[in-house]
Amino acid sequence: MNRRLLVISNGHGEDVIAVKIIQELWKLQKINFSSDSNQEYCPINITALPMVGEGFAYQKIDIPLLGKVQKMPSGGFIYMDGRQLWKDIKSGLVGLTLHQYQQVKQWSREGGLILAVGDILPLLWANLSGVNYFFVGTAKSEYYLRNEEGWLEDVSIVDRFLGSIYYPWERWLMSSKSCLGIFPRDSLTVESLQNYGIRAYDYGNPMMDDVDISFSPVQNPDDEYTLKVLLLPGSRLPEALDNWQLILSAVDSLLEIQDLDLRFVGAIASSLNLNVFAEIAQKFQWKPIQKKSVNIPIEDPDKMILTKNKAQLILSQNSYAQSLQYCDISIAMAGTATEQFVGLGKPAIAFAGTGAQYNPKFAKNQSRLLGISLQLVENPQQVKDKVQELLSNPDLWQSISVNGKKRLGSAGGAKKIARELLSKLTQRSEV
Fold this sequence. Notes:
The chain is an alpha/beta fold and 431 residues long. The protein is 41% helix and 16% strand. Helix 1 (12-35) packs across helix 16 (413-429) and helix 12 (336-343) crosses helix 15 (394-408).
């Protein structure tokens, strides 16, 4: 048997989602093998092509990479700033793209199946490969243009005429006989594509798989009366450090609120240096304290705890899902992490930074995607008023809860997508 799968993704977040699907695929294959004693075990031959970055997510699980990889200055955010595209071109983007296309064509000569994750580029490469493919659409959602009631007010005439967040040429790629299925990120987008006769499946959002988990924190009586605020500065340097300072300015404004007990949790990406974030916090007069002196249900032995004006600030890199589950509200300047938090039915407050990712255009687009679940303000000082507004309006808070869960979709998507892959790979191996 020859089971070959090529996974093409174009972004760090897309790499992570692809890895989740691969891991579920491995689990399902082992379950199927153990339940059928007459079956000869034949591992799936998986190769990955990370179009953006160096594919560290794949390397962590020992997936071989196809061709060469290269980190680009933009980090994949060229659609937010034309200057970033020019930097990438000067760094060899055109040559890298041609190399990747040639590698895909060469891989496809022996047959196999492709899983494309991201936007039109991996979808296009899959289509041009000549083999069958699936597509996980992580980058686009109908919510960018409309909601269940209709078009958003500022949607252009052109977008309304084209009819969908996926343009006609993208829908053409999805309608190919070689395309075995599309897995959009939410139900509204699934419905839109199905209206065009595209095989789109409402399998949920793999992005929510790792965070929508059962979490039973150590009971702390004080938590019931404490507003727990998640701080998300993003993962891209040096932007994350600049964002962190802006977020701490917003935190200072919250500390001015009388009769409000506050606890802050900084969810810092594992790729960053936690000590640097702690040092910046100390410049804002946060003082380190002993871990044992505070009962905080964040299971991270390496967490740091600081205090200021009777409030606590926990910095953690090893309890991401717990941090999202534990907190009530977020001050967010991140991409995927913000969406995951909102997907749990919780409100996020955001303001634009000055970096390549969380700039005004990105923040505006994210607010269109997330609707009322993302409350945009103009500067850190306005966070205080927005928090007070939310606390005084339980009906709005409830609407935000319903909205976020609907827009981000349900968990379990990776396993369902993996089941489709395994089914098709098994069919191909038996031909």
